Amino acid sequence: MKIKILLIIVFLFYPLSGEWLQYEDVVVKSPFRIASLGNIKLFPNEDAFIFKGKDKNYRSLYKVSLPSFDTLRIISGAELLYKGDTLNIDDIIISNSGTYILIINKKKQIWRHSFSGSFYLFDIQKKKITSLGNGDPHIRNVKFSPNDKLIAYVKKDNNLYTYDIEKKFERKLTNSGSETITNGHFGWLYEEELSGYDGYRWSPDSEFIAYWEEDESMVEEFNLHDELKLYPELKKIKYPKVGRSNPKLRIGIVRAKGGGRRWVNTKDKKEYYLPWMKWVNDEKIAFLKIDRIQKEWKLKVLDKNKGNPFSIITENDRDGWVDNDGQIYFLDDGRVIWISEKTGYKHIRIAKHSGSREWPITNGEWEVKEIKHIDENNELVYFTANKESTFENRFYSIRFDGTDIKLLTSESGDHQIKISGTRKYFIDTYSSMKKPKTIILKEIKSGETITIIDTTEIKQFLDYQWSFPKLIKFPSLDNQVTLDGFIILPSNYDPQKKYPVIMHGYGMPGTQIVWNRWSNIIHQYFAQKGFLVFSMDTRGMGGRGEKFKNLGYGNIAKYLAKDQLAGLEYLIQEGYADRGRIGAWGASGGGYFTCLMLTKNGPYFKAGVAISPVTDFRLYDTAYTERYMGLLKDNKDGYDSTSTLKWIYRMNGSLLLLHGSMDDNVHSQNTFMFVKDALEANKDVDWYIYPGKNHGIYGDGYRQHLYRKIFEFFEQKL
User: Fold this and answer.
1) Which residue ranges make up each domain of the chain?
2) Residue 3 — very low, low, confident or very high, per pLDDT cuts 50/70/90?
3) Does the pLDDT of residue 227 top 60, yes or no?
4) pTM of this prediction?
5) Which of 104, 426, 537, 628 has the highest count of CB atoms within 10 angstroms of its CB?
6) What is the DSSP string of 300-338?
7) Phi, psi of 210, deg, nearest 5
8) In sequence order, what are the residues at sequence separation of 6 or more whose Cβ sits closer than 8 angstroms to the Cβ of residue 661?
9) H-helix or E-strand containing 408?
10) What pLDDT, on a 0 to 100 scale, did the predictor assign at position 17?
């Protein structure tokens, strides 16, 4: 008890004698040392990971064995000499057996996740290096076959190839590739909203490849203007906006050594997506078919050589949407395990191979987040879930029959899990609002600590006037639900004073912003400048079951606007907030949130900063928007209500918009349209366009300018 009282005293009074964060601490170089393993790659089928060296060893790769942490250099810079040049290591891919490492050189980003580059095959034992495609810098989506004898990849001609490692021979598997047809690699829409960029799957026996052929010829192009060239250049994106034509897909199955292609029959009268595919075994393949409005998916299976696909499992949600989370697993005995919302919460289910009978593995008023591993021999599923708290992901195991559920991460906080190659250990990275990041190696069956890998010293934060967040609960204005949020009080908070508030939001359907995690340094800077920071999860957001999240369906703005006012009312009634000095900020979906607060909730907000905002969802893509809003032709009123442009007449405060000129995701068109309408309505709006920058607006000078403008704006306006 004495120890607890002492800790409370430290938390309450230590900051009074501490230092203050400076702008450079927040944006240029943090004064805090945070626990980290760096960018590691887990070694397949071994308890080990690989990391890249630093400084003079930046061309070296090291292998760390677990649990001993013995470290061995497996590649040195001297061994990366190829045709007179020493290769830089931009990234790596480890083969399934650990025999080879692919060195990625000249890595160039395409969209958010996809990239191209030159790939070099390094034999770890023989210390030999071989080039794929003679150093072609446009190779992408490279994967080893399961037996490590072949490598598949997509080239600039948008065709799929394989490379025989032993024979050093390249085969072209497809011929339809063109400017509008891609094999084995997805275009913008599927990469960003549905599947990622990976457009093919190796069969378990390495004999076949199932792949998507994507035809974007019917998709309209959106042009980004690169003004940094002497004569501005156009970057064209096949980008289907709401209500427009989507790309068309078909699934092909081809022999990995060429020939024998077969097309899968996926035809349907209705429009649909094909976002997921996996081999069941050497002979059968499964795929998901989702209707365009994403209210139903069907899991279909077919024989690789003959017959039509047949449905084995169906999920639907007539009041909302079905998630495409890729969490579907086939057991060796043919049974299927997946995450379902059939109980009203996301839970793990299991079914017979035919889907004729299914039953739950987990159950209750909590949600499974991710299946991390399935141990078939012992009939155990390892998964993360928010069973202990809506604000925390913890790690569990449970038997196939739903018994013997075990909590493997006992520490309060939000946990991120990496499982070692033999599935004997896991690396647990976690933090809470009261405890900064800790990294621990644990035994997977019991959750017992093997060793503490790294910790973050809390004293360094106390030295800098750290203000600990506080979880809060309050009723909605209609008293229908209790809502969750958190506040960060100004440093040296005086309960006799009322403070300006900065609301940080996101609010997109099914997401969550309130977590029991260590605080954001930007919010701490606001707190030191005398602001109260507030965030909340409104109706329509995630973590609380299907009914709660579906409340946002068809009108994203409805409860996002209403419930934020309930949070504001709570802050005022509790004596925290100065109702005349309320601000909002956020990026991407949070940029939309900010514009909505300053328009639809305009009478209550004095200032806001919107980074890369959607301002009207008619301007955004089909797959994301129609998932939560339905089709435009069926829901015009919902789209009108959701558009911030329709609410500009209610805007009373000042708004700053920040956007990258080459944003391929949320086009700067959104900002331009908002600015146009705001100026015509004589509203107080400022904006900056960052030349050549995409959705994230990264880059030292750019990022520093962005945050400087945010901080200055709130200090001036609030």
Assistant:
1) 468-717
2) very low
3) yes
4) 0.94
5) 537
6) EEEESSSS--EEEEEEE-TTS-------EEE-TTS-EEE
7) -95, 135
8) 224, 225, 226, 227, 668, 689, 690, 691, 692, 693
9) none
10) 55
